[in-house]
Each structure stands twice: as C-alpha cells, then as structure tokens.
Amino acid sequence: MSSSSAGPTSPPPGPWEIALASARGKAHEVRDLDNQDAGRWCADARAIVLAIADGHGHERHFRSGRGADLAVGAACEVALPLGARIADEGDQPAVEALGRYELIPALLASWAAAVEADTASHPFGPAEDGLAGHYGDPPVMAYGSTLLVALVAGRWALLAQIGDGDIMTVDPTGTTRSPLPVDPVLDGVRTTSLCQPDAEAAFRLAVVDLLATPMTVLLLASDGYGNAQVDDIWQPAVGADLLALLRAHGAGWIRRNLPDWVARCASAEGAADDTTVALLLAAAPHGPTAEADTVVAAG
Prior knowledge:
Blueprint: E1 16-23, H1 26-30, E2 37-43, E3 47-54, H2 64-79, H3 83-87, H4 92-121, H5 126-135, E4 147-153, E5 156-162, E6 166-170, E7 176-177, H6 199-202, E8 204-209, E9 217-221, H7 223-227, H8 235-249, H9 251-266, E10 275-282
C-alpha cells in the first residue's frame, strides 16, 4: 500500500456491481431459530458501502438477530456520508484517521442508539428479563453482533471489522489478500462484539489504495462461509474462481447464482450455520464479459 498520493494516476477499476445473499443455517432451522445474519449495501455518486453482521445466537444474546440488522443499518447511515470526504482525500494516513477516529466511534454510537430505541419500543418480556437477570447483563448485551464494513470511494477502500468473518480482495491477476490485521482473540469459539464495553479498541481497520493495489473483487463473508470451505486456507482458490467466473459470465450471472452458493454453505453439507456474503465486482474486469447489467459508480 502507498502511504501518499504519489504513484499511478489512472482511475481505480469501476464502475462496480454488487451481489448480496444470506441463508439460514440448517442448525438454526432444526432449532426453529431465525437467520441471525444481516447484510445491506448502499451507494451514492461518490461511494459504495457494503456491510454484513452476524448475531451471536447464544441465549445470552437473545436479540442478536435484531442486533445484526441494526448494525448493518448503522453502517449505511454512518459510512456513506463519509464517502465524499474519503474520495477527495489523497493521503492514506488521513483516510486511516477518518476510519479510526470518525467512522468507528460513529458506528458504535449509531448502533447503541438504535439498540436503546429498540429496547424502549419493544421492552423485554418475562423470559428475556429472566435471561438478562441470570447473566447480570445490561440490555445491550442481548443484541451482540459482529460487523464487517467496506467503504469504497475514489481510490480508497476503507475496511473495518469487529468479530469473526472474512474480508478478502482479489486483484486482476487472481491474487487474494486479507488486508485486515489478524485478531488473536478469534479462536473459532470466542469472538469480539459490538456489545462489549471496549468495542472501539476491538475494531480492526485497513485502507487499500486501489491505485497501488488494484481490486477486481471484494468479498465480505460471515464465518459460516469460511467454515463451510473444505480447505482451511480457502481464499486463493475462491478468489481465483470468482475472478474466472466474473470474466466468463459477468457480474449479473454471479449475482443470480450467489444465493445458491450461500445456501449450500448454510446447509447440513456445509457449515450448517447462517451464512451471508457480499461481493463488490468490477463491472468491466480485464477479459471478456458475457453479460452486461446495471452498474453502480463510485469515484
């Protein structure tokens, strides 16, 4: 990554197209639980925001599905207005500062306010009160969720994540990267959460300079997706496949097929867990494209 505005001057790839799908895990279906993942995207003329969230599902977090939905709503509410400022920025440390000191605190404040409003409008019932009392938790704990956010504006992709799941980029050569730093707390059993008191410090952040590191595909996925893959290190094969399919069939074809792929991951033959995937796809990748579709510009 470049830490300054020096370097290539050609525009980053785009316009972009978006694919988003979510499926209820077989384990939740058997237990008659709703899908506790959520996904949302939003865009304007300058920026695109992708957000997915995974409610924890444990009885201690008995409103975590609602917490996930409020989280992706907060992401769109807070991140999109920052897009124009980031698109006009030429300095990577300045973009990082916007993410760390404006985006993340605003995300947490927006989500906490939404949780408080939801609790006020839908007070806990007797069973919920019993669970909260059993664990000695404040109301916000009931809404515990992860959150993955990507804000793409101009030459920058600003990425923020709390909790498990994956954010991956694929460049025009098929090389995959996981830009966010590894969190040692995430051991496959424990996860960090929006509901923890030190959530701001638990957020991981990365900035990708699309001029220095071109991006053809951006993938955000809840942990149900990665857990459904045969290989522990699945990113290179998945990235190469996505790029090949994008060039062969186009973004519209991927968007139409993504719900089936996600459903397989959520099935008993996959992870059996709720699974959500959001993709940002270059509308005109290097190489032939079989189908054209509606595009969303950001630049």
